[in-house]
Amino acid sequence: MPLINAGMNTASILAYRFLFSALILLLVMLVRKIPLKMNRHHLLVVLLLGAIYVWSAAGLQIGYRYMPTGICTVVHFTYPIWVILIMLLLYKQRPAPITLAAIAMAIIGVACLVGLFGTSQKIPLAGFIIVASTGIAYATYLVIVSKSGINQEHPVKVSFYVMTTTGILFSIIALATGGINTIPGPSGWVNTILLCIVSTVLSNILLVVALKNAGATTNSILGSLEPLTAVSIGVIFLSETITISSLIGVGLIIIAVLLIALSGRLAYLWKVHLLRRRHRH
């Protein structure tokens, strides 16, 4: 938000973010002697991931102009629902009843956010569609990482190629729409560096590591804390307002995401409970 408020356009912010991040990752690879070589199939996959990441990142930045950052993050974090739907459509994985209930809960939460129940704080429909589409893009990204075998590559290498592709594409977009803005002063450089290291380099490396070692469930459970944190920071530090209806919507979406993340475990516990009851009788 500080970079946007300083007058930088979205494409410029994201070009700096991903190109600087790629440079940091390249230095990490050189220090750790991680080879740059990647087979052709995986290289095509990371190029696709980079292209998908363009809209996921750009749409979220655009969304910040339409709605408070906390609510914007919550809408983006509907991505587990889109993962479920993509897996259903492409891999015929039918969701469990608890997952369907969670999806219904999330839909009600979204309705609260966009003001369908008469709240005084209505989220612009155009802004909502833009941010929701970033969730779809990110869900697609996760499915590709999980199903393509790319997570068998070193996570730093994968992140380097994705960041490089995304940074180049944003640079082209910035040049085609008026040029790349200069970073405004020392505070702008500090914000840009923090954006690169904390929000980009660490988050992407840890995501690939989490998907490889902990699985999607644990990743989703821990990830569901992010929208709650974003809402809290927006209200406390950015003086953003949130109505009761929006707060209910945020709560419903976060609970829905947690239910989806825990659906496998809950289904297992339910089966164990039923088996114990049958054994007693």
List the helices and strands and how they pair.
Blueprint: H1 2-5, H2 10-32, H3 40-63, H4 69-76, H5 79-91, H6 97-114, H7 125-147, H8 155-176, H9 185-213, H10 215-223, H11 225-237, H12 244-280
Number of strands: 0
* Content of β-strand: under 5%
Radius of gyration: 20 Å
Distance between the termini: 61 Å
Biggest sheet architecture: none
Q: Any overview of this molecule?
A:
The protein is mostly helical and 281 residues long. It has one domain. It has twelve helices and no strands. Helix 2 (10-32) runs antiparallel to helix 8 (155-176). The relative contact order is 0.19. The mean pLDDT is 79.
Question: What's the short story on this structure?
Answer:
The chain is built from twelve helices and no strands. It has helices at residues 2-5, 10-32, 40-63, 69-76, 79-91, 97-114, 125-147, 155-176, 185-213, 215-223, 225-237, 244-280.
Note the main attributes of this structure.
281 residues, mainly alpha, 12 helices, globular
